[in-house]
Amino acid sequence: MTSLPPPEQWVLCKMNEMEVAEMIEGYIDYYTVDEDGTLRSVHLPTPFVRHFMQRHDGALPTVVAIATAPIVLADGVLLAPEGLDRERGIQFLIQDELRAWRHAASTSASTLIALTPRTGRSSTRTRWDGRRNTAPRYWPHSTPSC
Known about the structure:
With about 150 residues, the chain is α+β, with helices and mostly antiparallel strands. The protein has a domain at about 15-115. The chain is built from three helices and seven strands; from the N terminus they run αββαβββββα. The protein has helices at about 15-25, 45-55, 95-115; strands at about 30-35, 40, 65, 70, 80, 85, 90. α1 crosses α2. It is elongated and about 65 Å long. About 0% of the residues are buried.
């Protein structure tokens, strides 16, 4: 057990036009010039926002998943970048406490793996017949039909 707090529960939601407009307006100031020459901030035109939402040219990153913990790749490498991994479309939202714990544990884990004896034998016993790594030849109970 660790003393890490439970991770926050994130969810991917499709934004509506008003949310997208607010997001864009956080980065750019769309304005108009009044008759007297003063600049006045205004909302983005709806066609601009709709076009922005329909872009499929790869100019904008696409998020397909959220990860709150590092991911172990097939080659054993830990994947845990800050923020968005644009290549895979994964938004990493890993708690600072977990990142600190992972870095502290990485050296002790590699030491532990190096010291673990490798006999090639499995001590796993199955619950059905006591032999090692064998599957049952038949199920003792009938399975209900769906």
